Structures are given as C-alpha cells and as structure tokens.
Amino acid sequence: MRFQEKVVLVTGGGGVIGRTTSGMFAAEGARVVVTDASVADGEATVRGITDGGGRAMFVKGDVTDPASVAAIIQAAVREYGRLDCAFNNAGMNLSEDNDWNPAAFEKLMAVNTTGVMYCMKYEIEAMLQNGGGTIVNNASVNGLVGSPLQPGYAASKHAVVGLTRTGALRYARQNIRVNAVCPGATRSVMTSKAMAISEEVSRLITNMAPMGRLAEPEEVGEAVLWLCSRQSSFVTGHALAVDGGYVAG
Amino acid sequence: MSQDLLGKRVVITGGASGIGAGAVAAFHAAGAQVMVADLDAERGQALARQLGPTVRFQRCNVAVEADVAALIGRAREELGGIDCLWNNAGMLGEYGKAETHSWEGYRQLFDVVVGGSVLGIKHAAPIMKEQKQGCIINTASIAGLLSGYGSHLYTAAKHAVIGLTRSAATELGRHFVRVNAIAPGAILTPLIFAAEGGGPEAEASARAILPKVQPVPRAGLPEDVAALGVFLASDRASFINGAIIPVDGGASAGLPWNPLYEGRQQ
Prior knowledge:
By secondary structure, chain A is α/β, with parallel strands linked by helices. Chain A has helices spanning 16-27, 39-51, 66-80, 102-129, 151-171, 189-195, 199-206, 217-228; strands at 7-11, 31-36, 55-60, 85-88, 133-138, 176-183, 239-242. In chain A, strands 3-2-1-4-5-6-7 form a seven-stranded parallel β-sheet, sandwiched between helices. The N and C termini of chain A lie far apart (36 Å). Chain B is an alpha/beta fold. Chain B has helices spanning 18-29, 41-51, 65-79, 103-131, 152-172, 190-195, 199-209, 222-233; strands at residues 9-13, 33-38, 55-59, 84-87, 134-139, 177-184, 244-247. In chain B, helix 1 crosses helix 8 (222-233) and helix 3 (65-79) packs parallel to helix 4.
C-alpha cells in the first residue's frame, strides 16, 4: 500500500488510462479526486472505486479554464485536506489535425499543453502548503518523437515535456518532483478510434513498438504510480517512455 | 517490504560494492534469487554470506568472454533460468586532456563498460529468448547523456552503452525480452570517492558536495538506483523497453534553480 492516506488528483479520470490509474491508486490506499469534462465518465470511475471499497470523489472540470482548474484543486483540498500527487492525464487528439488545421491546432494546444500548465500551477500551490508532492504529466511518445500525421498533437505533447522539466528544476528544492509518462499506443478509446480507420492502420499501430503489441492501461498506470511513489524520490524531470521500445528505434 | 521480485532469478555484475551492492540488497529484499558477479571475490563472498542462501557469488571479469559465459551458464544451471541480468560492472578509467589518453586506457575502459554489456547481452539473450521473457538492465550514466560528467573516454563509453541498449531493445523486444538503461547522476559510492582522490577526506568532501550538484538537494544513494532496477525487473514494467532512465535528482533536465533568480520573483 504505497499510497495509504495520500490524496491523488487524476485529470481525464473518465478515460481508459485515467480510470485504470485512478483505480490502481485507490487500491493502494489513496483517496482519489477524479476530474473529467464528462460527468458520466468521471462518475463511473468514482463508482468503480467506491463500489470496491475505495475512496474517491468526482469534480467536473475543464482544464482549459484556469478558474475551473483552481476550483478542482480547492474542492480536493476542502474534501481531503491536502494534495500529495497529481496525474495530469487529460488530453485529446483530433483527426482534423492531420491537415494542419489551425482550429484543431489551437484546440490541442489549449487542452494538451495549456491545460497541463494550469493544472501544474494550482497543484504546485497546494503541494507547497503541505511540504511537497509529486506530479506526473501524460506526455505520450509524441512528446519525445514526431508523428507524421499529428502536428498539433506532437507539438502539444512536446510542450508537456518542457513543462515537466521546467517544473522539476524550479521546485526540486521545495520537495516537489515532476515527471512525465510517455505511453505508446495504449488499449484505449483514443487508440481504437485510430485503429478503426482501416485494417492496415490497425496493423501499423499494433506493430509500431518492437514488442509488437499495444500497451495495456495498467502498464501505464504502473509507471505513473512508481513515479509518484517514494521509490523514485531521486527521479525528477524525466519523461519515461512506456512504449515497448518504440522511441528507441 | 514489497515482494515484487519473488521467484525472479537475477544476475548482477559489479555487485560487490557501490550501486551494485545496493542493487543486490534491494533485489534480495524484494524476493529475488541473486547471483552476484564481481572481480572482488572477498567482498562479493562476504555479501553473499551476509544475505543468505538465496544469494550466490561468482567471480567474474566482464571484459573476459569466458568469465561471462561461465557466469551466465552457472546462473542458468543453478537458478534454472535468468529473469534479469543487470550489466552494472564499470570503472572510471583514465582522466586527463585529450592528448593524454592512452590506447591501452581506452581499450581497458571500453572492454569493461561497453564490452561487459555486449558480452552479458550476448550470453543472456538466447536463454531469455527461449524463456520468451527476460529483462536486461545496463548501468549507463548521466555521462552517457551529456558531456561534463566524466572524462572523454568515460563519456564516450557510457554513450555507447545507451546506443547498445536502444539497439538491443529493438531486436530483443520482439522476443519479450526488455532492455533498458539506468543513467545514475552523482551517487554516493566508492567510485565517487575515487574520483575525488580517494581516502576518508575524499569521502567527506563527496558527502559535502553531492547534495549540491543537482536540483534535488540531497545526495543520490545506491538505493535510489536499486529501486529503479527493482521496478524495471518487476512485472510492473512489462512494457518499458529501450528506455534510458536517469536517476539524477533532475540534473539532466536542465540547469538547476539558482538562488540568484530569487530577485526575479518579485
């Protein structure tokens, strides 16, 4: 039970990776604050945890709105008294991004990059109140390497790595660690949508990694939990690939 | 203590001291059977005796292929297979300006640091491929990512370890054998004391300096590196392959926060 009594925030907690990771934190004793733009999805995550005897609460939120992000953190601290860990996982991709579409680009930057910046800002404020904490951002492998079809997605995720490194350097002395997790294609709704395009695309995505399969959401969750745990207390500013070897070559 | 490595069969080279000894202790505590390999038989045997019957010692010079073959062969025979090989043996080698390097010094360092990992992978890969699972960890260094953290030769050798890690990961990943590297920053070990000139004064100086050389304001310890090794060797890291992971308190993320910046906050 690595997270007994810890308070953990998970953004995009209604998605597959967010839901799985929320459940894994709860199973190790954490009180989990699940936030998502979708009430139905976020509440389903919380129900999954509380039905199993875990502790969690849902806060509806929009990471592109700083007031909403501030309110999420306030709600977490009001209910559970503190904030120890955050997994900034909310993110999206858009098929229009393939065409270098300006509106799609703006939207992706707003959600994937600016959203993470707002979350970090208010999470760090809260963590400084209780002597430190750990943050993990979801940067995707496209935070490390380009993607021929997704200029806005890759740009927005590379920016998350920049925020991660900068936050790590800035707050190391105040006992706040900031790392990123960079999953390759993961068995999730986002990936199934892309794989539905054609059999060829599906095969391509599956074989992208040398290990020849998709990541299971639990494998991403394990990396997030490790980076949030005491075992990684000398690791900060790193973007950890969980990709079966995809970015290695 | 978690038992994340219960039943795992592990070989750790350079396991008698420093990061390696920390790794042996952590793997043992996590439930693994460990074969410790090292040049220093006295220290290695003492460590094995201290930890008990699930820890064995084999003398090994990782730069000698017959030694590595014997080590891997014995591990396979006595442990019944190898779930994790940690190529950790290393040395600092020659220091000095470019024009002072000797060919012998270059060969010796590369034989141990790069050659040791090449031989470890060569002999463990067939066993792990047959098992359809395995994990290889290479000890790289922050000097494998950046210059300025070691001599030219050490920097070059550790960069090579990272290249080897990535390349082996792409081949062996298809066989469910994961290959990753750990890049420690400044870690409080005898190697650091030696770099400081050796002796108790060097140790005292290292202890005083190390909390200041990276953004995280404490000295890095062998257990920090060992903890990442335990994670990588566990089933929790089952999709992490070809990763180069620093354990450096943020040193490789950029320049640390400087108190001079404080005035800028107003």
